[in-house]
Amino acid sequence: MLREYGSVLIFTLLSIGFMFGMLFVSKIIRPNRPNPMKNSPYECGEVPVGNAWVNFNIRYYILALIFLLFDVEIVLILPVAVVYKDWINNGTGLIALIELMLFVAILLVALIYAWGRGDLSWIKGYKSSEKSETNKR
Amino acid sequence: MSLYQELPDNVFITSIDDVLGWSRKHSLWWMVFGLACCSIELMHTGGPRADIERFGAAPRGTPRQSDLIIIAGTLTYKMASRLKLLYEQMAEPRYVISMGSCSNCGGLFSSAYSVVKGVDQIIPVDIYLQGCPPRPEALLEALVALQGKVQKEKFLRK
Lengths: 137, 158
Hints:
heterodimer; B: alpha/beta; 6 helices; about 15% strand
């Protein structure tokens, strides 16, 4: 029983050895002539500008969260819209409609919350910018 | 690499050169660089009728993985700096096929203000392929000619 796993072990060792052997052979015979232009990042031929580690504006964070709100809404409502005609024929259309409205209402609360905090406006009002004023660099 | 540059031309070394050339010429991965109507013929060459991949020439999307760049179409001055950078970013040894009249000498648009009069003014060219545009068979012949050039190269002593 255990001896049969020996062939697996040999296969594993052979494949690992083969891999490192190939890498070693290509390391010997390949030319290695780096220069700054060759090592520059590949940007489809464009010269890279600035640093790749860019700080995004923190205001996009709120927008992304609000997007998630509507995203989930769409994902869950669209399948209902596809089969809604069958549900009307079954007589369950009204219940489904009420359930959908309830769902939208719950998500609407979140939207109203964000609206009330002033997160929907790109340029913040005085009240909400009070905190960010202290966080400014 | 200095060790290889002093190698003598004996039977052993030249047969290693042959094997290396044989394996290199059948793995010429080329970078997709379609600029104009020649790239339509380039796509046909990748299609089932001509099938450039049976020569081991696979299309790649990045210069890091490619040995060959096929310049298919009209090169403008605005694109020339990008082409130069892409060529420099390719791994060595690297080869260039200039496909069609436009990339050879400017072709039909050679009197236009914005067209480079020949790709060889920007980067060194190995194969000039005439035609406007060249048929897929012609591109295959250019590839085979390049394979012959790769086979003859003494790779270890480059």
